[in-house]
Amino acid sequence: MTLTTDFGFRDGYVGAMRGILAAATGPSGPLRCVDIAHGIAPQDVRGGAVALRRAAPHFPPGTVHLAVVDPGVGTDRAPLALLAGGHAFVGPDNGLFDWVTGALGGADGAWRIEAHPWLPASPAPTFHGRDIFAPTAAALATGRLLPSAVGPPVTPLALALPAVRALDDGRLIGEVVSIDHFGNLVTNIGRSDLTHLAPPAAWRVEIAGRPVPVADAYGHAPPGHLVALIGSDGWLEIAVRDGHAAERLELDLGARVTVRFDEPPAPPAS
């Protein structure tokens, strides 16, 4: 199974969850738990969704993914168990699993966690990661529980990306939706938004009104220079070779990104 949180490692919260998981033993012995990320910015559900989308599909079918980025803990948001593409996901129903389940072909079923034998009698309202999600994920991963046995079926919440806008003059307008550990500014403009309009040599990228050269890889830019490229997840991103683009440009989430073309693409057929 995997573990993803915004808890960091300083305060022992991840350790408490790992303690619950360590106590669970299945037919093949103790659970093997792999960390995906714990440095997600606090309460950044979108950042957690990006991390899961980036990593979870590369695990084998049968993996249980336990993820907690949960600013609504203790409220009426649903605790969730979800199946998609042969994987199970356990965590808050706040859109955290929307992008990864889409990458896996969509949800095959989702259930609100209400009652099962491995839940404590009085879970803490402020730490569902330890008291609700970890026991549920452990029971699923060890085969002691089916997702459909945790509670009633629900429709999980979506976490939509901001829409990419196509203007009449052929420009595409997007925005920064994620900033990774290296300071790369990842946008909502996907490879498919661009490649059907023009080849990369024709792209003219601007961020906050500043032009950025386009390349295929970070190393194709001189050290310290800006570069725009399609990252490993298929999204246009702005980087600084051997540097930190977000700090260099003093930009944050929501910064506007524009792509122009040498030859404006034909308007879509009505």
Protein described:
With 270 residues, the chain is of the alpha+beta class. The chain is 19% helix and 27% strand. The strands form three sheets. Strands 9, 10, 11, 12, 13, 14, 15 and 16 form an eight-stranded antiparallel beta sheet that branches. A six-stranded mixed beta sheet has the order 4-1-5-7-6-8, with helices on both faces. Strands 2-3 form a two-stranded antiparallel sheet. Helix 1 (13-22) runs parallel beside helix 4 (128-141). It is elongated. The relative contact order is 0.12.
Task: Give a topology summary.
Blueprint: E1 2-5, H1 13-22, E2 25-26, E3 29-30, E4 34-37, H2 45-55, E5 64-68, E6 79-84, E7 87-92, H3 98-103, E8 109-112, H4 128-141, E9 165-166, E10 172-179, E11 185-190, H5 191-195, E12 203-207, E13 210-212, E14 226-230, E15 235-240, H6 245-249, E16 256-261
Parallel strand pairs: 1-4, 1-5, 5-7
Antiparallel strand pairs: 2-3, 6-7, 6-8, 9-10, 10-11, 10-16, 11-15, 12-13, 12-16, 14-15
